[in-house]
Amino acid sequence: MQLVITEVSQIQPYIFASNRMRENVGASFLVMQATEGWALETVNKVSPRNNIINISPAGGKSLDGRKRIDDPADALDAEVLYAGGGNFVALFRNENYAKEFIRLLSRKILTDAPGLQLTAVQQPYQWTEPLYLRLMGALEELEQKKRAWAPSAPLLGLGVTVMCRSTGMPAIEFRSSIEPQLDDDPDYPVSAEIIAKLQGVSGARTRLRKMIPPPKGYMYPVEIDHLGYAKGEYSHIAVVHIDGNDMGRRKKEIGEEYKDSSQNRGYIRAIRAFSESVAEASRKALMAINDKIVNCVMQEGEERFISYKNKNIEKEGKQRVPKVVLKYSNEGAWCLPVIPVVYGGDDVTFICNGRLGISLAIEYIREFEKETKASPACKNKKITSSAGIAIVKSHHPFAQAYRLAEELCSSAKRYRRKESITGSCLDWHFAVSGLSDTLENMRQREYKVKRGWLTLRPVALDENEKQVLRSWQVINKGIIEFREPDWFERRNKLKALREALRLGGDAVSQFLLKYEPKGLPIIDASLLDLSKRGWWGEYCGYFDAIELADWFIPLEEDGQ
């Protein structure tokens, strides 16, 4: 037999290389095709006797768990072990089948998805060997190949050429812009890579509607401007990148249970079930946040919108209550303020209205944890996640926004490892003035003062045993308190508090003598002194909450 593993490398840079959403959506579909649809179709061409039941152009697939390559009665020439999430693993009867599979799949990707990188490993395998150990060896070889990969220097054109606006490569034709008012002219030059991505847009939308069907009467937006808006202010979007924690360890734990060659079939069933359960949990979590959005929609006249609910603020008072107004499409449905771009595994990226970025990330993580905890394939143990939320103006260069979201996600992961937090973590940043520096430098410039750090980020989603202050629960409690009329309707008072917090504990004490003799809101029973000075050690406990008080829209009533 031959063990074959293929992986699409540099997925995120490929998907988010462009500043046009439809190109990102089409690129995501091409990545999925490379590791699922095209890979399965190639197996069918090379080895018709296999365990594939059906392949849907929209991204669905079925594998027959009863057919086994090690069973002479089935006489299979190939068995797909699992596919998706950027990886494809299969066993082939002989070397010729394996080589032909790699050759045809590589050609398919080169011609139909220019710019996408495929790495493949082929190793001889005997069924009497422990499959898990051989698979680990093949994955190690795959990593070595990826590290040793030398990028080619593409020919940048001969004679007079026009550069593609998205990739910088030579353009081969012009395409009409979906938003001509944002371009110098309605037609813009595109390279072969962008043409392939644009051709994938239709398939991507079909797949999204099938995999994560929108609620009745709603649809996914086609343009950034359809993610919702707030009247009288700049529109902002949030790019949310969420990645599962400790996934490598979870897969290793499964393999450690099936280290003997007599357990090969058990290992295949277990790892396949785990992969499918994670994908299903992600799908259900995305559907759940769609339902939560729709349940929060309010209506006044012909306008539908989402706003936060607070029993003490029934109507707009002295200050305008933030809300997201939904767009009605010419297709006869309301546009959801969110669109998933990468999904189908533990690694998820979606774009949404800026005011909903943090709340949707939190709701997705909680739903994903709930679904994985209910799954026997996940040993009924929840899979936690880390999230990065980049909030930018709606027409900010999208590729930069995604890079910031990815950096924020990495920041949350590093904090989780450093503090040995067992739950989920998240980090966010308002890049309203542009992205011209690293996250660390922006934080130093905007949130570092003489006393310490104004921001608590990154934070644990649930309780943080080691650093009680650095948890979302604490920040959320502060948001609720600062939305009470005594604070919410007195903007000068809030502004004065922000300035006092920047100057340190003594300035906060002076502020309290003038404005609030009883102290600042108590946001945690174990942090009583915080209400007198505003600081706890080197961290300010209120700045994040004040920053979010008139921005953040939860998907539940304040205080619940």
Description:
The protein has 560 residues and is α+β, with helices and mostly antiparallel strands. It folds into 3 domains: 2-148, Alpha-Beta Plaits (2-Layer Sandwich), CATH 3.30.70; 212-437, Reverse transcriptase/Diguanylate cyclase domain (Alpha-Beta Plaits); 448-560. The chain has 17 helices and 21 strands. The strands form 7 sheets. Strands 15-16-10-17-18-19 form a 6-stranded mixed sheet. A 4-stranded antiparallel sheet has the order 4-5-1-6, with helices on both faces. It has a 3-stranded antiparallel sheet with strand order 11-12-13. A hairpin with a 5-residue loop joins strand 15 and strand 16. It starts with a strand and ends in an 11-residue tail after the last helix. The model is unreliable at 180-184 and 314-319 (pLDDT under 50).
Task: Briefly characterize the structure.
This protein is of the alpha+beta class and 560 residues long.
**Main β-sheet, in a few words?**
6 strands, mixed
Tell me the fraction of residues in β-strands, as a range: 15-25%
**Which ranges are low-confidence, i.e. pLDDT below 50, for 5 or more consecutive residues?**
180-184, 314-319
- CA radius of gyration is 26 Å
Total of domains: 3
Tell me roughly what share of residues is in helical segments: 40-55%
Question: How many DSSP-defined strands?
Answer: 21
* Strand order, largest beta sheet: 15-16-10-17-18-19
| Average pLDDT | 86
- Structural class comes to alpha+beta
Put simply, the count of helices is 17
N/C terminus separation: 57 Å
Annotated CATH architecture of the largest domain: 2-Layer Sandwich
CATH fold-level assignment of the largest domain: Alpha-Beta Plaits
Shape: globular
Task: Indicate the CATH class of the largest domain.
Answer: Alpha Beta
